[in-house]
Amino acid sequence: MRLATLCLFALALGGCGSYTPYLYKTDVIQGNVYSDADIARIQRGMSRAEVERILGTPQLVDPFHPDRANYLYRYFAGDSKHTFSRRLVVYYTADNTVAHVEQQNLTAK
């Protein structure tokens, strides 16, 4: 009885590991999905509403910097530990038209 309890406990702890090759892990996509073609469509002088029609609602609008909108994208590959991150910042003028666009590819792992 004691041996059966010990084996059951060892099996339960074995499932708590971070690497379990036999389990399916799905890919996770977070944020705004946009392509390079979408970014190329954004031109200086476009209104905020036109940009949101192309890219969607920004994920982050900082109340301390209302002149910029942050579009974030992150992809986690489920079968590996690789992530891909991308950030797009659209800067606006005082009359809510596009001043310029800044893109960063942040590949973490």
UniProtKB/TrEMBL annotation:
One of its GO terms (biological process) is Gram-negative-bacterium-type cell outer membrane assembly. Coiled coil: none annotated. Signal peptide: none annotated. GO terms for molecular function: protein-macromolecule adaptor activity. It is a lipid-anchor. Residues 31-99 form the Outer membrane protein assembly factor BamE domain. It is found in: Cell outer membrane. It comes from the Bacteria. PANTHER family: OUTER MEMBRANE PROTEIN ASSEMBLY FACTOR BAME. This is Outer membrane protein assembly factor BamE. It comes from Cardiobacterium valvarum.
